[in-house]
Amino acid sequence: MSIKVRYFASLKESIGRSEDDLEFAGLATVGDVWRSANPNKALPDNVLAAVNMDYVELDGAVKDGDEVAFFPPVTGG
Predict the structure, then answer these.
(1) Counting CB atoms within 10 angstroms of each CB, which of 30, 41, 54, 68 has the fewest?
(2) What angle do CA 58, 54, 7 make, to 5 degrees?
(3) 11 exposed, middle or buried (CB, 10 Å; 0-12, 13-18, 19+)?
(4) pTM (2 d.p.)
(5) CATH code of 43's domain
(6) What is the largest CA-CA distance in the chain?
């Protein structure tokens, strides 16, 4: 299955790219997507994840054609 991965804001800066296209053979979760796309980088604390523009937990399932997005925590003041 094919998954589009997008990174935003400071995550895009720290990873050095804005997106990835991944291929999986079988079921995958959002956490699996991060680990596959970034095998040497731990997922930062408090990162938000979305599948097809809906926020999900890291154990949320992904399926063929999904878009997974990772956002750093938002601060304001």
Answers:
(1) 54
(2) 65
(3) buried
(4) 0.91
(5) 3.10.20.30
(6) 44
